[in-house]
Amino acid sequence: MKPIELLAPAGSPEALDAAIHEGADAVYLGLKNFNARLRTSNFAYSQFEGAVKSLHRMGKRIYVTVNTVFEQREADRMYQFLKYLAAIGPDGIIVQDFGVARMVRQHFPSLKLHASTQMNVSSSRGANVLSRQGFSRVVLSRELTMEEIRAIRERTTMELELFVHGALCVSESGLCLFSSYLGGKSANRGMCTQACRRLYRNNDESGYYFSPADLQLIDQVPVFADIGIASLKIEGRMKSAEYVGTVVSAYRHLLDNLDGNREQALEEAKAILRHDFARPKTSFYMDTAGPSAWLDPNQAGGTGIPLGTIYKVRGTSGDRRGLLGKTSVTIEAGDSIRLHKKDDSERKSHKISQVTVSDEGVWVSIPDNFDIGDSVYIIQTRAMTKRYPSVLPKDLSPFRRMPGREIAPQVSLPLPGKTEKDLFPEGIYAAVSRIEDLFVLQSAKPVRAMLSYTRSVAQAILEGTGPLPFSKNELILVLDPYYPEKLENLFPDEISQLLAKGYRQFVVNNLAHLSLFRNTDARLIAGPYLYSFNSWSFAQLHEQGLIFKVTPLENNRQNLERTVNENLRPYTFVTLFAYPALFRIRADLSEQYTFEYFSDGKDENFRLITGEDGSLVIPEQPFSIVDKQEFLKEAGFSRFIVDFSGPPLKKVDYKDVMSALKAGKSLPNTTRFNWKDGFYSNPDEGLKKPSSQPSVPRQSRKPQGR
Predict the structure, then answer these.
(1) In a 10 Å sphere around its CB, with 0-12 CB exposed, 13-18 middle and 19+ buried, how is residue 387 labelled?
(2) φ, ψ for residue 265 (rounded to 5)?
(3) Which H or E element spans position 276?
């Protein structure tokens, strides 16, 4: 059996040194763009080229994260970047966007494709779809049980990579829209502001309701090795070199001693991990205790041991110091701390150069851009700091390659035939989550009704508990974007039953859904979670037989028009109204939390919806562009969705939306989401923004009707 790979993060050259010299077999890192950790320092081109050469000489592997979606205006830059990577020769690239994968297969086949956890693959069916599309490895979603991982390993020949240590997202992998909703800083674009780590309020109480503990699967490593997992991945490209070195050394120690006394090696490895100075630990969905095992509202969202907040500042630039209150933790020069801006706009690690103890507390050196009210955590002590030999060559001057200025080839697609065009009529489609909500839609009947395929809906339809207000030809079943291996025990059979009963129309939101309908006469629509932000991803879905597509909720007007040419716009659904699912959580939180409504520190209000299918967090103020329908029609779009899925639908709400739609008027107390302003634009990326976008990067955006 091939030895299991220990894969470590390299967010900086120092972390690279720590990872390699503590025994990592491979590292993953990002460059200055197109990766899901844009807020870390990342590598310059010369450093990256030098790292590839050094690591290959050492017999180590290096993977590059290209795991964000790209907009149409960035196609040339993505093409240039991939051509550059192909010339340098890393051992693989980790991708999320179907468009990146398509570009690689067609033009840079020497690059090995690894599917990012952001691609939301949580089943053998999804892995096998990717295998047929040229991927060699998949990083599985983190919300899986041991039984599911075993089953996936048995049902696919794909290499499987698992996260085993580090920070967790509360939302299902690749499906978080919270940060994007708050200000365009999309997790799918590497700009996540970690909304899950924030303090929220409900009535007179407050808590870190959605801030999970950190993952630690050291106990499960022997099983992963025995069942044939290819790679164990440590999270932490934003963590210090000391943290990386500590965690790598623990997992290396265990892996090296699996053939000996496993119990002793495990205890020794766990002893090393007691010094990683991160959050409390959890085995996540390996733990049968449920969400109480990984969600503690009393646990602050920061990583490390809390030292409190800065309440005085003195000194000038380059010699700035902050006063912390008295603490039982001994702080010394050389210790590493992590600072969090009070508005959560920035988090930064810092090595303390000066410490002065006074009657007021402890003065410590801080970075220039941090101030009073910002939180401080200790993440590593000087006593644990090691100096490692540099992996990078001392002289980087020979490494001068950079991306060129090539133009990406144009994407051309065959036009659908008349038969395909008639599959779904033009007009308004209305989406709901409950069968009883279908009856509300009768007051202003849409051309089609879309119904979320939940467990309760499945039971009602398959058991035929009563007549529905829409015929089978008028009803489209919407499949949930999260498809865990557990569903393999019932979903294929249920789909066969639905087809036998005459249900033919489905919205698919996960790669696994595609193979459920192979060799059937089902009529499929690519849902908004099969992200198509560029013509390359659009074409990839098109060639999978998904002629009709719902544009992602995060998309903006300019990018939509650039992506979809005029001939294909009639086949593209545009959502005009929705309560975006900001978090999609694979757990029923009803026993953990009894509240339904909560707010953040900026008085923005949200709603928690729980049930057997999992939990959703939605905004109290919905997304709406109902007043833009006529404009969109003029641009060539002809199929639209008003999406009421999530909360129960009230007749008055449906009437208000449909009346505003008919009148072409905007709805009050709603948000445009990213429709007008687009994604937050990172000034370091050097992209020229369209004239309709703001001239400065957006820091936050309050929902408003406009």
Answers:
(1) exposed
(2) -60, -40
(3) none
Residue for token digits 């508990």? 465
In sequence order, the β-bridge partners of residue 115 are 95, 138
DSSP 8-state secondary structure symbol assigned to residue 620 = S
What is the DSSP track for 648-705?
PPPHHHHHHHHHHHHHT-PPSS-B-TTTTT-S---GGG-PPPPTTS-SS--S------
Q: How many angstroms from the chain centroid is the CA of residue 237? A: 15
Of 183, 181, 172, 97, the residue nearest 554 (C-alpha): 181
Average pLDDT over residues 139-167: 97
Q: What is the pLDDT of residue 303?
A: 72
pTM for the whole thing?
0.90
Q: What Cα–Cα distance (Å) separates residue 700 from each residue in 191, 506, 674?
A: 13, 36, 12
Beta strands at 305-309 and 355-357: parallel, antiparallel or unpaired: unpaired
Contact criterion met (CB below 8 Å) for 633 and 640: no
Q: How far apart are CA 373 and CA 345, in angstroms?
A: 13
What is the spatial distance between Cα 49 and Cα 43, in angstroms, rounded to a whole number? 10
For 105-138, the pLDDT digits (tens) are 999 999 999 999 999 999 999 999 999 999 999 9
Residue 170 CA to residue 149 CA, distance in Å, equals 19
Residue 310: left if φ>0, alpha if ψ -120 to 50, beta else—which one? beta
Output the six-digit token pair for 651: 């007749």
Query: What whole-number distance in Å separates Cα of residue 414 and Cα of residue 575?
Result: 25
Measure CA of the first residue to CA of the last residue in the chain; give whole Å: 60
Phi, psi of 464 (to 5 degrees): 60, 50
d(CA 192, CA 177): 9
